[in-house]
Amino acid sequence: AGAAVGEDRTDGEGSWQVPLPAPGAYRVTIDEQSLPEGVSLRDPERD
């Protein structure tokens, strides 16, 4: 894994945006503990 390039939180409509330093492949991680009650990832094992 590489170094983190940014961090963001969703707005009231669930949108988020992180400026990327250059074109490439990036991985997004979600802190499942931060999801609202009753909300879960559709496929938590998918990477």
Distance between the termini: 13 Å
Number of helices: 0
Could you estimate the helical fraction of the residues in percent? Answer: under 10%
Largest sheet entry = none
Number of strands: 0
Q: Return residue spans where pLDDT drops below 50 for at least 5 consecutive residues.
A: none
Q: What is the global morphology?
A: globular
How large a portion of the residues is in β-strands, by DSSP E?
A: under 5%
Structural class, from secondary structure content? little secondary structure
Q: What is the mean pLDDT?
A: 88
Q: Please give the radius of gyration in angstroms.
A: 13 Å
Can you describe this structure?
- The protein is mostly loops and 47 residues long.
- The protein is 0% helix and 0% strand.
- The mean pLDDT is 88.
Sum up the structure in keywords:
single chain; 47 residues; little secondary structure; 0% helix; 0% strand; globular
Structure, briefly:
The chain is mostly loops and 47 residues long. The two termini are 13 Å apart.
Question: How would the blueprint of this fold be written?
Answer:
Blueprint: no helix or strand
